[in-house]
Amino acid sequence: MEETEIKVERHVLVPEHIKLSKEEAQEVLQTFNISFKQLPIILKSDKALKNLDVNHGDVIKIIRKSPVVGEAVFYRGVKNG
Question: For residue 34, which of 19, 38, 45, 71 is within the disulfide window of CB 3.0 to 4.6 Å?
């Protein structure tokens, strides 16, 4: 039986993940008056980040589709792991 590679980052149930530039990340942290350490974490090894070329310290914007509000935006800080 042939094994098929599943592209998790393209699956319909995986929300869109966007790597923010350093300037965008700084703006998000200032907007919410928080530090990087206060962000929820996402591991660098997470399959949803596979094609994003992320490093420890990057900020990821996650856009989830919502039947109630249309789109819900979340932020995560990348940690090694």
Answer: 38
d(CA 74, CA 81): 20
Which domains, from first to last, does the chain contain?
A: 8-79 (3.90.940.20)
Alpha carbon distances (Å) from 58 to 22, 32, 43, 51: 8, 16, 11, 14
Higher-pLDDT residue of 3, 57: 57
Note the pTM of the prediction, 2 decimals. Answer: 0.82
Distance, first Cα to last Cα, the chain: 32
The closest alpha carbon to 79, from 48, 54, 51, belongs to 54
Q: Give the residue ranges of DSSP H helices in the chain.
A: 22-31
If one counts every other C-beta atom within 10 angstroms of the C-beta of residue 60, the result is 22
